[in-house]
Fold these 4 entries.
Entry 1:
Amino acid sequence: MYRLETKAKFDGAHFLKGYEGKCANIHGHRWEVVVEVKSEEVQTEGSFRGMVVDFAVLKKDLRDEAKRLDHALIIEEGSLKEKTMGALLEEDFRIITFPFRPTAENLAKHFFEYMKGRGYDVASVSVYETPNNKATYTES
């Protein structure tokens, strides 16, 4: 089994509505996403012969989603009052909403599904909220 890994980083803010602790307040992270893909085979023809996938393609696919989240407020749908949301949007703040609470665990699953949707056989995705704290998602 071949396994390839690449990383992407993005800066983003979030908060956890209903959480009893410091993370209930808006705060930011330098998120790091590590994706590992797997394959039984390497390509046998063309310019990618001997490769599972070109690292440049793998990196770009991961970075596309990291770039979308970069320097945004990442929130769960419905976690802000309509008036608050309207005021932030009126000020041209970039807000990305998800149907889930934006924890490291849920973001790991999000990136897993995102890369799987791009056609990769994903082994795992880890999301580092800090250099010492990570959440990992796998299907098995």
Entry 2:
Amino acid sequence: MEVYFDNSATTKVYPEVRDIMLKVMDEDYGNPSSLHLKGVAAEHYIKDSADIIAKVLKCTPEEIIFTSGGTESNNLAIIGTALAKKRRGKHFITSSIEHASVLQVMAFLEKEGCEVTYISPDANGIVRPEDFADAVRDDTVLVSCMHINNEIGSVQPISEIAKAVRKKNPSVVVHSDCIQSFGKIQVVPKKMDADMISVSGHKLHGPKGSGFLYVKKGTLIRPIIYGGGQQRNMRSGTENVPAIAGLGTAVAISMAGMGEKMAFVESLKNKLIKELTALPEVYSNSETAPHIASISFTGVRAEVMLHALEDKGIYVSSGSACSSNKRKESAVLTAIGLDRERLESTLRFSFNETNTEEEVDYTVSVISELLPVLRHYVRGSR
């Protein structure tokens, strides 16, 4: 049996996504900036996808900028704001448990003379709105906080953060990395009081290399890619029409019956957590997001368990896919106060609606057999 429990790293594209992308590449391959019929046909795919996304977000299509994915969306949001507001201020606020595509941008801004305040979470991986508000200054230009943490699944109170910081400084721009939440829980920028949100297509059965940034009308940002002036001068370069068409299709399918799908996904996650934590010295690190389970198997290094599971056809992650190949401690797990033994033994299981109870049962049975063997091997070698 093959079990794929690494859906927060990437998802398999829907068959409909594959089909629409092939159609665009084979038949409607024109440049969307061309004035002839091939160009017009290509442009329609972009418009249709923008309409689909705008309907979900309850915004206008003009507020959607298509990008190459979550990393570019986060870069555009933060650097674009820094460029647009450099005369207004150079102070930024974010959490200490953001994705690298936010934290590395903040580090870049610090090197450029900006100041960044990092807000730490509580033991459950959740940040407090009042901590963000306390950090706000007159020269604060942007607050960035992810909606769902990619490693432990903690859900952040974005609307409360936005209200708290704007009460102190109404001009602060609020950005949220919604890469792990879009398609899993409700994401409506107006309800969240967010000026910008970032989304990646390959986290919701769309193609890799696709994504978008929502920018509320009237929000001032500068482009970071210059050229032919595509997308209202905000993101130059010929649009990746196959990926954009695939993204729009993935969004439409993901949103159809999302509540029922995620209720089922959450039941799988809860079942896995309940049965695994019944085993000796196995601990859950978070239970908030519907699709992510962070579990520590003390006495066994994460990489050892990961590869042992891989040998049995079970695919999981030892953390963020963008950093899990680097041998360093997780900043997220460190921030929530895990001791070294749990830090070194944590795996992430992430689900989608195609997973089954049978896969959960199989995974639990495999881990139940592996744990005592691996622990005996590790502890016996000391």
Entry 3:
Amino acid sequence: MKEIVSFYLSGKMYGVDVDHMQGIEKHRELARPTGLPDFMEGVADIRGELIPVMALKKRLILPPADVTEKTKLLVFRTRNGKIACIVDGIYRILQIDNDNAQEFPRIIQSEETGYADFVARIGSELILVINPENLINEAEWVSVGEILDRMEEEDDD
């Protein structure tokens, strides 16, 4: 049995395994330091911690949408640190039995689709479940980490 947090991006449902979740936050004002990779929207101060915020739609090459009252930040824990992703809205936590979770097809797995963890079936609907560990590569993490370090140093001054 797997538990996923389901969410919407550009009218489609996606999910993430609850084991990767740190929390769900309201969308908020973001700092926009120079030098962030194109797919990063900015940096959020969440309970005194600076967390990089990814425009997940840009990363997944999906059409943009306006921020609404339903827009949320999903905060993920990864081996390199925390990252938040902007989503259009949260659906709910879904329980997926193993018969309805299929590994993402290896034939279409690539560096660009490395974020794809598995496909969950809910009734007749398929949900792509992403793995936050693979949303940012090591070089991108180094770049983001340097920017976060610079921001923290500026705050200490």
Entry 4:
Amino acid sequence: MAKKTVASLQTSSKRLTKAIKMVKSPKTGAYMFVESIMAPEFAEEFFNKK
């Protein structure tokens, strides 16, 4: 399963990270991409959950 943190985004006072994860669909078996923008300290948690 591929996972990669793509970009660091800077807003007024917070530093944010955009993370993209490839997830296999249980119904069809096809892969889809899940994107999320979060604080950098939550990125590892995002990649570890299924």
